[in-house]
Design brief:
single chain, about 425 residues, alpha/beta, Aminopeptidase, 2 domains, nine-stranded mixed β-sheet, globular, binds zinc ion
């Protein structure tokens, strides 16, 4: 498959995954098609060698794994995240304006760039909790039409708008939903999309998403832009590398966690026990002891894959003077002396060997020494399951905008490197 075809598959994956619940649903569907057995955390697991499984938590985090036929017990793990910064719809969202409009009350989820959310068609996606026939059940919901817009203020009413505008999420960022004053109409729209009655909706986790479809562009079609590249580009590449790997001489684990953008400290985030619980259950399910588990962990390896900052053409001074990855330049190995990225000399060298074997290029990222930079999930996850970890990512621009930009070659590079890692 060429870069263009891989990138088109990535764009389909992104379009199918407007919320973490949808991303997990999309991956679950793929694993079922590939013959994976779904496990539930509340059941007894009957694991067999040579079989493949997946389990989800909160329907927003997923772990898939393959147990080899051989006596190979090392875990080879990739970790990425399912969530992206966006706006969450508040519980009772309708707000009337002068008996003329209804807008929606929203709050920030994660640290996003707010400016690019103005003046573009938006809609809602997430899950609703329905009470039907006396029981509560969850259902993913996506309004698949242009439903909302956050209109900016005209330049005539704020002549300083281009001098750097301060944005207040409670004042400036509320999306316009309808004309009129009819109460309850938003929940009715959501209920209709969910195929339920409005009174059956007892709870919801709904987020705004950007309606603009992803595109491949540039003089030689070398760029790809879409919402949620951070971090669904890595989640997609990890899944593909995991599925395409041929001989699995390790217990291969594909792990996608939620809530990275808000610090990971949730039941389904990297700070939770989800990964550790799953690894332990695999260990005990294979009839092994706790000491065996600790020995296995000591010999295991994790690749934490979360997108990286590429050199920005208009702001080259923001990058480290020496280490500045570029789009289409290959997989980025991330280093940070303060261990926000847990790559060290050893795990960095391991990853370079992997790239060499897979014949894909890699590059290096470190922050400028006077810029704090971001963080990720590798070091957080390491506090639960202490596995040697390398932090990597794919280079991108406009991180945390609702429309981010990356290179068309890099997804394929990561798929090839991970295929090697899991083989
Ligand atoms: Zn990320």
């Amino acid at each position: 498959m060429n870069d263009r075809q891989i990138t088109e598959q990535l764009l389909t994956f992104l379009a199918d995954s407007p919320s973490p619940f949808h991303a997990v649903e999309t991956m679950s569907r793929r694993f079922r098609e590939e013959g994976y057995t779904e496990l539930h955390e509340e059941d007894i697991w009957d694991l067999k060698k040579g079989e493949a499984y997946y389990v989800t938590r909160n329907h927003s985090a997923l772990i898939a794994f393959c147990i080899p036929e051989t006596e190979e017990y090392r875990f080879h793990i990739t970790a990425s995240h399912s969530d992206s910064p966006c706006f969450k719809i508040k519980e009772d969202p309708e707000m009337k304006v002068e008996n003329a409009y209804i807008r929606l009350n929203v709050e920030k989820y994660g640290g996003m760039l707010m400016h690019p959310w103005f003046d573009r068609p938006l809609s809602v996606a997430g899950r609703v909790i329905l009470q039907q026939n006396g029981t509560l059940r969850e259902k993913t919901v996506k309004a698949d039409r242009d439903l909302l817009m956050i209109p900016s203020l005209a330049i005539h009413m704020n002549r300083e708008a281009n001098e750097g505008m301060k944005l207040n999420p409670q004042k400036d960022m509320l999306p316009l939903y309808a004309c009129g004053t009819e109460e309850g109409s938003f929940l009715r729209t959501v209920a209709e999309e969910a195929g339920a009655a409005p009174e059956e909706i007892l709870g919801h986790d709904l987020f705004l998403y950007n309606r603009m479809p992803g595109c491949i562009w540039g003089a030689n079609r070398e760029f790809v832009s879409a919402g949620r590249l951070d971090d669904l580009q890595c989640a997609f590449a990890s899944m593909e590398g995991f599925l395409q790997a041929e001989r699995k001489k390790c217990i291969a684990v594909h792990c996608v966690l939620d809530n990275e953008e808000v610090g990971s400290s949730t039941r389904q985030g990297a700070a939770s026990t989800f990964l550790k619980d799953t690894l332990m259950r695999i260990n005990f399910g294979l009839g092994r002891t706790y000491e065996d588990y600790l020995r296995t962990i000591a010999g295991s390896m994790m690749i934490s894959a979360d997108n990286a900052q590429a050199l920005h053409p208009n702001y080259t001074e923001k990058a480290d003077p020496v280490h500045h990855p570029v789009l289409n330049g290959g997989i980025v190995i991330k280093y940070n002396a303060n261990q926000k990225y847990c790559t060290d000399g050893v795990t960095g060298a391991f990853f370079r060997v992997l790239c060499r074997k897979a014949e894909v290029p890699c590059q290096t990222y470190v922050n400028r020494s006077d810029i704090a930079g971001g963080s990720t999930l590798g070091n957080i996850s390491g506090t639960q399951a202490a596995i040697r970890t390398v932090d990597i990512g794919l280079p991108q621009l406009a991180m945390h905008s609702p429309y981010e930009t990356a290179g068309v070659k890099d997804t394929g590079y990561l798929i090839r490197a991970l295929r090697e890692f899991f083989a």
